[in-house]
Amino acid sequence: MNDIIKVHESHPRIVKRLKRAGGHLRGVIEMIEAGRPCLDIAQQLHAVEKAIAHAKKTLIQDHLNHCLEEVVGPLARSRRRSIDEFKEIAKYL
């Protein structure tokens, strides 16, 4: 593991989104315990999944845009193309 802790501009937004998703997840648990309809539960679970997936995507994109750039540094245009293509295709993860 890397001993250097990096906080990026997006991290507070990611934490906020994950805390909100955590609250929704607790709500889903309460819905199940209360015997709410499965359709309602499934809709809420879908919302939680989307929130977590968006947080993950934001984190990965932020890492690629900042940490990868630091490691790669300035490159010739011909070598830069592969990095740029990797960053672009990673958006579809």
From TrEMBL:
GO terms for molecular function: DNA binding; metal ion binding. GO terms for biological process: negative regulation of DNA-templated transcription. Transmembrane segments: none annotated. InterPro entries: Metal_Tscrpt_repr, Metal_Tscrpt_repr_sf. CDD domains: NreA-like_DUF156 (cd10154). Belongs to the FrmR/RcnR family. This is Metal resistance protein. It comes from Mesorhizobium delmotii. The lineage of its organism: Bacteria, Pseudomonadati, Pseudomonadota, Alphaproteobacteria, Hyphomicrobiales.
